Every structure is written in structure tokens, then in C-alpha cells.
Amino acid sequence: MKAQVLAIDDSRTIRTLLAATLEEYDFEVTTAVDGVDGLEKFAETAPRVVITDINMPNLDGFGVIEGIRTGSINKTVPIIVLSTESGAELKDRARKAGATGWIVKPFDEASLVSVLKRITGI
Amino acid sequence: MAALDAIRATFFEECEDLIEALNEGLGEMADGDHGSETVNAVFRAVHSVKGGAGSFGLNDLVSFAHTFETVLDRIRSGDLEPADELIALLQRSGDVLADLVEAARDEIPFDAATVATTSEALEAVLGEDAAPEEEFVFDAVGADFDFDLPVLDGAGSGPATYMIAFAPHRDLYANGHEPLVLIGALADLGEVTVAADVSRLPAVDAFDWEESYLAWEITLVSTEPEGAVREVFEFVDGLCELEITVTEPEGGGDGPGSPDLPDLGDLGPDDMPGLPDLPDLSDASPAASMEVAADLPELPSLEDLPADKTDIPATSKNVSAKKTPEAAPAAAAKKEARPTLRVDVDRIDRLINTVGELIINQAMITQRVREIGVPLTPEIVTDLDDYRQLARDIQEGVMGLRTQPVKQLFQRMTRIARETADVAGKSAQLVIEGEETEVDKKVIEKLADPLTHMIRNSIDHGLEVPEKRRDAGKPEKGTVKLTACYKSGDVLIQIADDGAGLNRPRIRQIAVEKGLIPAEADLTDAEIDQLLFRPGFSTASSVTSLSGRGVGMDVVKTSIAALGGRISIASTPGEGSVFSILLPLTLAVLDGMVVRLGNETMVVPIASIEEAIRPHKDDLSQLGTARTLFANRGEYLPVIDLAERLGHPVRAKKLTKKTLLVIQSNGSRIALAVDGVVDKRQVVIKSLAKNYRHIAGISAATILGDGKVALIVDPDGIAEDPPAGAMRPGPDDVHPTEEKKDAA
Amino acid sequence: MPPEAEALAAPAELYATVIVAGQDFCIDIKQVRENRRWSPTTTLPHSPHYMMGTMNLRGEVIPIIDLAALFGFPNIEPTDRHVIVIIEHEEKIIGLAVEAVRRILSVTPDQIRDAPGAKRDTSTSCIRGLITTESGVIRIISVSDVVTAMEEVL
Fold it and tell me: Which of A84, B86, B619, B710 could form a disulfide with B631 if both were Cys (CB 3.0 to 4.6 A apart)?
């Protein structure tokens, strides 16, 4: 069975890019357009990994992490934060919020795959 | 990456939406809405452009978006006050961003000077704080390398030995990390020997599965630099106790290296000498496998319980309610989430064409059936009616596919208005209403240029300068209202300004100077207004760089007519002018009056026909030898014989035997003589210019039920042929003097 | 029409020969879409005398040119036997009314001679070359010049 990845980003471009890249590596990708959608899809798909943007409408990435980590299902799922900012402060905040790892946008295929591997072992 | 081009196309499509959202948000900010949701939406739009642009290496776009975004971020955080000047700068920046996107999309050069100026202006707003912002983009991996640089040198000469003491905190597991994966990543770097420290493991009954009890001593023999080893732990920094010590390979005499080696010997050979990798790990560390085991029952048990699943949506709702207290954003999200389908316009156009054929086919079948001459059964009549109705339903549905809201078009006008006001030294605001009104996509595309011109005109020529407005007791800031609404099957677009109104004496004077009208011409206000649409008329007494781009209102009128629409003016001195554009909802169909003209059949748009009359002899009066006037409702209308105007062979037929169509054109009325009215019906518009060329007085063609082509009359074109105004008599002056005007 | 192609030296181009005012003309077959029987046309106002009008070709409104009139002969009196050669040029679809379509000629470039005389009027300017065959001289119609003539506004 293919490993499920949930990709949450309000940018259609980034969603498409993530899906295209990950599908090439034989992941099965579900996308969500914002935080609320992301949490709903999370409950539906029980993904192996979550990749989420930070700045999104309705519910931001921190909200998504909080929602997952304080939930009862699959709460220790690896969550990778996708952000254009690479500031130490942001990383610290992401880590404190419960993010497993982060990728700085723009990401390339190699870094995306390497981070995924480092976090999930897949 | 596969299909990168397709994703690139997606990016530019998305950019259109983002720019739209950006302009909308900036508009709201300009209107005084500085709420966090508004500012955040603006920020997000720019941020998303930047994010996507980065993926495609569009560096100019990224760098501008970054500066722009930084300013927005500061407004968002309350550091910067969104004063009017700043908002104006943001709007200019939005325009620059749109230009950069366009340049990147079309791979054309952009106006580097404007980008640089705007960028500098944004940086100036950020002030001295702009510098640290640059440092914000740092490379985490690079930073970690620094203090270990000597090791990098050593790494070249052979494998180094890393002693890694790794003790996860419970947060490490909570954050979704897995020691096995980390150790596996180390194993990828070289030879790994692992020993688990299970000393803190409690008795089974005291076991808390969320707690972290294990620690590991890992020995890695690798040629990789220390940075690579540390990178493995990048994400768990602060979530564990981590100590990495390095022993140089050949540096046996080194102080720090020597004491380490015995340790290595202690751990390695005792456990599994030749087999250091992952299988060992599970064997050597029962606690680790226990960790996994503890995890495993967790998941299936939850999946078995559907009740638990409902927990998450509930949680998510709580969270969302907490983060977005206002109801409005949630409603907006609902709207956004409505599923849509992006379809190539060509495919829809093909479908529309086919449906057009279907309509014609339906009309032909109906006609053929009637022509057979057999008595029709009620069933056949009903079936034919049903066929017609179904065909119309399909047509309507398909046409609806091609419509889109005028929103994006209108928002582009905000920018035009802003730029025009800046250059013309006017203070102006553009108020938009009815932007949800849907019009055929092709109409929208073709409306951009005429609308741009008209907005420029309204601000440049319509609105007065602030001082004059103040003197006239008006607010200094002029208002141009751009509205759209449905009006009995058509779309009405209006551009209304609260300026000085048309300067009719001046317009008249210009027209005389340009030889468009005789000096003594007696024109009504409406007729003077129509002069604006005459070719060769330029309103600006001094051609400004804005309105005077060589396009006059005549071009605007022609473009609108090409869309099957009409344009009219209403103006009140001191109060302003309203330009009204009436457009068909869709381009492809038209309600027409089918008329006979000798052996030819033609179609006259019903929208332009006020009434169709068989004239009485007494209502007709001769004016000279060639002109006839028709008295209608107290007004004398010039009679135009359609056949004659179109150059058909002249047949002597008395006007009283003909039908006069009273037509509203350019603010005046004319009586169009045709041989007879055949039918009223909806016709599918076919371009004549596509395979032939434009013909004066003809707007397009259609195919009638018999399969023959019928031309569609352009009433304005027909009425225009002789100079407008020169032959329009007012109610009281049907005198031979009119003849002089004609001759002049 | 029987496609009895005359076997001449390659690389040859194919031309469809048509009869206009009793004389032989030909059209590059690459520009010919199809041939149709004559059907009544709708008059096009303000158009040159060689514009016969417009007709419906499967939903497309196409103009019909009277080649005889264009070449300076009297206008044809169309009958059911007349043929409309449908040509395509720069995305425009146009019908050329001729008396008949005869056969397909295979012609090598060296068989084509320049048309004599300067481009004085449409009767000569729409001819871009001559082919000499056993049965006489065949004039090659320049479709682009025909289209230009059609677009001329009176």
C-alpha cells in the first residue's frame, strides 16, 4: 500500500507541486486548501505524514499542528512545516508547537524527499 | 519534476486570482478597513505569489514580493500605521507585482525602473529595520557547520568516529519523531553500532507509553563531515539530550581521540561484531521494539472505534472557532470551497457552436415539416415544440458556461483610475458596484480596452481639479462610479462621474472647427453629445498623455458595437456625465426581427426597434427630391430605405406598401423602410468578418431555418452613413433650410 | 473528378484544374478543402461585382467569389452544374465558383513559367504562373491574390 501524505497549502501552485513530486516517489497524496480543510482531511485519510503551510486562511499551520497533536487519533504523526521563512524564531515556534520538521520554500525535489526520509524513514 | 510546465501554468492562473484578492483587499484597506483579516488576506496573496514564484526561479518576482510582503507584515503586526500615503504605495506595489507576474508569464521584459523605484519606496517605509530582514534568510545547515570546520578537512583523509549520546525527551515522540528513523538516517552515513540505555525503564505496571525512558549510545564510523551528522538531528534540537564527540581516524595520538576508542571497543564487539546495522538495533534494544509495540495496538484500536473518529472534526471545529472568531471568514471559506471545474475555453466554444447548429437544425426541421404540407398531428406539434424548448434549454445552459463575473475586469479599472488620477493631478475614487454581474467571457476580454479608455476619460476630462471642485461646493475628491447590472436580458454597464458634465458649447465648437458639422447647425443636446462618438473628434483641447492615445470615443463605440452592444451618454452641467453601455449577455445569440428586402431576408436586432409601422400617406412628407420624413409621435424621423442604403437594385415600391421600423440610434430616431416583416426569432450570430470582412451597416450574419445565410443589420451603422446631426430635424424645423445643412 | 494524375518528374506538386469562362485554370490542391455543388447565395452589400454573395457551409458563413467576373469575363449565370471550390487561406474559408473541376495535375516546379505581363489588373494579378501541357496553357490561380482582391473595399 502506498504511504498517504496529506499536503495542506492555500496556494494551488504549491499543492500541485507537492502532489506531483510526491506522487513521483510513490506516495499517495491528499491535498487540503486551508487549515480547517486540512484537519477534516486528516481525520478522513489518517495519513502517514502531514505537510502543512503556515500562513493560511481560516486556520493557520500552527492551528493545524495543535489540532492534530491535541487530538486523539494518530496524534504523533510526523508533521512537516512548509514555510518561506527560515528564521530561527519561526523554527523554534514550529518545534514548540509540535512540528516534526520543516522545509523552506522554495523547495526542490531533493530537499523535500530528504526531509521526508529523515522524518519518516520512508 | 514531471509536468513542470503545467504546474507553471497553474501558478500563473493562481496569480490572477491572487492579484484579484490583493486588489480587493487593498481596496478595502483604502476604504478604511484595516482589520486584521483584511490585512492578512492581502499579506497572504503577496506571500503566495512569492512562494509559487520561488518554485520557478522567478527571482525578480520573489525579491519584489518579499519586500512588499515585509511591509505588509509590519502593518499586520501593528508596527506600521496604514496611512493614506502608505496605502497608495501598497496599491502601486500591487500594480508592479501584477506587472512582474505578467512579464514572467509572457516572458517579456518588465519596467525595471518602476520596479526599482517602488521597491525603494517600500524599503524606505521599512527604514533602518530593513537590513536585519535580509539576515532573516539564513541557512540552518550552514550555520551548524561553522564551528566544526576543521573536521571537514579531516574527513577527506578517512572515516571519523562519532560518539553520539542521544536521550530523547518525551516531546520528541509527541512531535512525531521516531528514534529508529534517526538512527536509520545515521546508518545511511556510515557504520553504526548502537547500544540502548534501558536503565530508566520502569516496571511494566508503572509504564507510561507517552513517556521517554530510553537513551542510546551510538557509534558512527563515517567519512561524512560532522555537519551531516548534526543535520540528522536538526529537527530534534531541543527535544533531546544530544552529545556528539568526534575522533579523528588516523589521529591516534590525539588527546580527545584516545579515551574514546576503548569505549567503542567496549560497545561494539560485545554485542554484534560484524553486523552493526538495524537488525542489531532491535535485538540490542528491547525497549525500542517495545516502543513500537506500544504504538501498534494504539492505531488499530482507534480505527476500530468509529466513535473516536468523530472526535477529530469536533476538535477541528473548536480550533477553528477559536482562531477565527468572526463569522464572515468562515462564510467566505464556504464560498471558496464550492467545487469548480476549469475548462479550456475552446472546448466550450466548440460546444456552443454545436449547440448553435442544433438550434438551426431544429428550426430547419420545423420549417421542413411545415413545408411538406401534410396536416400535422397534435403529437408532432407538441414534439416539435418540446424539441425547440429542449434545444433552447441546452443553449442557455451552455451559454452560461462561458459567462464570468465582471469583477476582475472592474478591479483592473481601479488601477487605471488610480494611475490616471495621479498623472492628471485629480483626486478621484472609483466606486465599483455589481461586480458579480456575469457576462460572456469574450465580451469581458473585449471590454477591457473601451472601459479603460472611458475610465481615463471620466477622470481626465470628466472630473474637475480639486480647487474647482471646492469652489463648486463639491468634495475635493471626485467620484467615478463603475456599475454593472442586468437589464431585461442585457447587461448594463455604466460609468458615472460627478464632474462638471459635458461642455457642450466647447464640443460643438470643436466639431465645427473640425468640419464635422456646419457652423450654423442647430443641434439638440443629445445630438451634441453624440458628436463625441464621431470619427475625427478629439475631446481634449490639449491632448494629455492619458486620454489622447490616439483612440477616440469613436473607437470605443465601434468596439462596443462589435460586441453587439450600444453606448449612450447622459450629462447634466455641473453634476456630471453617465456613459451607459448596453451589452448582450452572450455574444452568440440575438433576438431578431426577420425582414424581407426584395428577394433577400435580413435580420434587425429587436433591441433597437421601437415599433414597426405600416405608414399612412399623410404621415410622410417629402423633403427635396431624395429625402422623406415620417411623422411619428410629434417628431419627424428621416426615412432610410434599407435596400437602397445597402446598395440593392432600386425597385419602385411605394413607401406606403413598405414597413417602417422605428429605430433608436445614437440618441436619435430613424425610420428604416423594409419590404415586410416575416417573423421574430432568436438567431445564432455568425461572424461575417471571419471569412470575409466587415461591411458597413451589417454587424454579422446568421443562418435561417432554410439553411440560407441572412445578414444582421447594424442599425447604428445604417443610421450613421450620412453625417449624423446634419439631417436630423427637430420637431419644429421641417423646412427647406434643412437642405442647406445637408448640402454643407 | 477522376484523379488521373499525370506522372511527371518528381518532386511534383498537385494542382486541381478548373474551368472558368471556358478556359483552363488550376489551383494548388493543398489549398482546396472540398468541392460543393452550387446553391443560392445571399447578397453581400457594398461588395465588388465579383462577390456573388455568401453561403452556409456547415454553419460557417463563407463568401463566394465569381472567378469569371474576377478575371474580367462576364458574370456567371449560376446553375446546379456549377461547382464551388472551397479553399482555405490564412484561416479564411472561401468559395470559388467555377464551371467545372476537371482533373488533378502533377506538376514539377520546372514546368511552371512566370505569368507574362506586369500586374495590371485582377485578371492578370491573380495568376502566379503558367503550365504548358499537350492540350494547351493552364494558368495557376494565386489564392492569396484572390483573397486580397476579395477584401478590397469599394
Answer: B619
